[in-house]
Amino acid sequence: LLRGRICRRRLLEIHGRVFRMDVQEDDLVATRLIGHYPAKPALGVFRSLRNPNIFPYNAIIRVLAEGGGGLSGEALTIFKELKFSDAAAPNELTFSFVLKAVSAGEEEEEEEEAVLPQVHSHVLKSDYLRDSFLCYGLISAYAAARDIQSARQVFDEMSDRSLVSCWTVLIGGYARLGSAAGGLELFIAMLKENLRPDNETMVGVLSACSSLPVEDIREWAGRLERYKAASEGFGNDHVNTSLVCLYGKSGNTAASRASFDEIPENGGRRSVLVWNAMISSYLQNGCPSEAIGVFKSMMTAADPCVSPPNHVTMVSVLSACAEVGDSDLGVWVHGYVRSSGKRSLPSSNVNLATSLIEMYAKCGELDEARKVFGEMCDRDVIAFNAMITGLAINGKGIEALTLFSRMEEAHRLAPDSATFCGALSACSHSGLLRRGREVFGKMIRVSPPRVEHYGCYVDLLSRSGRLDEALGVATSMPFEPNSYTWGAILTGCVVHGRLEIAESVASMLVDVDPDNSGGYVLLSNTFASDRKWRRVAELRRAMRETGVRKEAGRSWISIDGAVHEFIAGSATNADADKVIESL
Q1: Are 121 and 85 a contacting pair, CB within 8 Å?
Q2: CB contact at 8 A, 260 and 240
Q3: What whole-number distance in Å separates Cα of residue 457 and Cα of residue 477?
Q4: What span, in angstroms and rounded, lies between the C-alpha atoms of 376 and 353?
Q5: Which of 13, 272, 508, 546 is such that its CA lies 20 to 30 A from the CA of 562?
Q6: In which ranges do the PPR repeats occur (predicted)?
Q7: 555: how many CB neighbours lie within 10 A of its CB?
Q8: Within-domain flag for 118
């Protein structure tokens, strides 16, 4: 009766029958009942046993370890009771369930530190280290406890290291604890032992690649290239996946794309991780159109069902859509997510919902952004920040500040650094000087403003014509003003015709960011508007002498699902001749 899946009503009927038959003390019956109940009722069944053997012990420890809800600590309490029991002794299953409870991380840190070495000691005494699955549990628990040295020691002492999950959890542990080199060393060692990483392994490897210091990228890219040259093909797809990420982080999108192209498209060898890595490589290097192109290739691949896009793909693509203003593709992505059997995903996945809000807001579709925000099941600070910033950049300052207040009062969420930036930006874009002063004053009382907050406040003052006050804030703040701060003041000088201070501000901007043409261009425009052509010529000569070039303006337009990019002074667009002819 207690085999297979049982509905709760039927389970209660069977439990009542157990009592009528007076077999509630039977260890096998109790074990089956514990396995069918949720954690708290299961604990009640266990506590009713006077002298349980190992089977009910294992059952309740497993249920408590897997049940969540802060009950993993109770599993450890029962394990301690078991150690002093005369009726039972822990076996390999007991240890694996206890280790799962420790890995859950819900118990107190001191208790975890005490229990884990005890379990490890019992495993050693019981000669269970030959069990690879139990070793995996130890490695996973030590990694979760941030004790990577002990995790590595268990791994190194294993007699059989063919279980891929042991490598996976250790690589992931290295990546999480900031030891990217340790994770990549293990990745290469894994390949040399002819073990093929799975997708979960590659998540850890890519995490290690992402956290690798920039100055170490060349060394590791070289080591991976050398392995690939000597490997006779084994593991090359996984190495190339890592290289896509590494080259992308170093800014070499050409090398990143070359590694991507080495992975055959046929046979499902391009996993979703590969596609995501390539899209991310383009996106983080300011190539949103190319990122969108890769996504479209992914969706039209020979066998798209092998590697369907996941929410990470969609978040990246939505960011690219926001960059180029491609609302058509953004709407398509939104519809795809809803129609792919995951209709509730946009409202339940905070990252995806936030990306949709940002995309719609940057494309000027505020109603859609509001709709996504309103449908979210659980709005966190990041979601509020996205909506506040979206309202700010669309000139809806009053609404943004209302949401800022509601976030604290109705939702009991404390604003973070990005929230204050969004609120100050809302005041700046809508000319709300008084409200901006209030927001900045409030932040000073809550937490020390950072340089970006001072920059937003200076921008607000500059846009409002309070240039002397803006200069005072810039020169007295506890940070060196950055290019954004000086740029905001310089823009204010140009808008409000304060040429007498524009030149000195421009020199400040050039000092902090000598390679940025913005300061030169703004000042040149100011001189030109005042017909000071000699000063314009001097500025241009200074730019040539220092090697500073004006960054070409660019824009995008989406027509029939295709994004067209136009660069000022360039005829690289395939339809440039037609556009010029029409003009």
Answers
A1: no
A2: yes
A3: 11
A4: 7
A5: 272
A6: 163-197, 271-301, 349-383
A7: 11
A8: yes
- What's residue 561's pLDDT? 57
79 confidence band (pLDDT: 50, 70, 90): confident
The answer to the question of residue 109 being in a domain is: yes
Domain assignment of residue 371, given as a range: 310-378
Left, alpha or beta for 394 (phi > 0: left; psi -120 to 50: alpha)? alpha
Q: Count each helix (H run) and each strand (E run) in the chain, helices first.
A: 33, 2
Q: What global pTM score does this model have?
A: 0.78
- Region label for 561, one of left (φ > 0), alpha (ψ between -120 and 50) or beta (otherwise): left
403's tokens: 């949401």
Cβ atoms 391, 426 nearer than 8 A = yes
pLDDT in tens, 32-46: 888 888 888 888 888
Is pLDDT at 259 greater than 70 in this prediction?
Answer: yes
Question: Per the structure block, which two tokens stand in for 175?
Answer: 């990546």
Are the C-beta atoms of residues 427 and 397 closer than 8 Å to each other? yes
Asked if residues 492 and 473 have their Cβ atoms less than 8 Å apart, the reply is no
Q: Is residue 64 part of a domain?
A: yes
Angle value at C-alpha 556, between 295 and 561, nearest 5 degrees:
45
Q: Which of 352, 378, 404 is the last residue of a domain?
A: 378
Residues ≥6 apart with Cβ < 8 Å to 453? 417, 420, 421, 424, 440, 443
End-to-end CA distance of the chain: 81
- 105 backbone dihedrals φ, ψ, rounded to 5°: 70, 20
Contacts of 499-504 spanning 24+ positions with Cβ under 8 A: 499/526, 499/527, 499/530, 501/467, 501/471, 502/526
Contact 247, 214 (CB under 8 A): no
Q: Return the higher-pLDDT residue of 109 and 17.
A: 17
Look at residue 345 and tell me if it is in a domain.
yes
How many independent structural domains does the chain possess? 3
- Which of 350, 378, 406 terminates a domain? The answer is 378
Residues 398, 391: Cα–Cα separation, whole Å: 9
Q: In terms of Cα–Cα distance, which of 386, 424, 428 is closest to 407?
A: 386
Report the 3 state secondary structure along 407-441. Answer: HHHCCCCCCCHHHHHHHHHHHHHHCCHHHHHHHHH
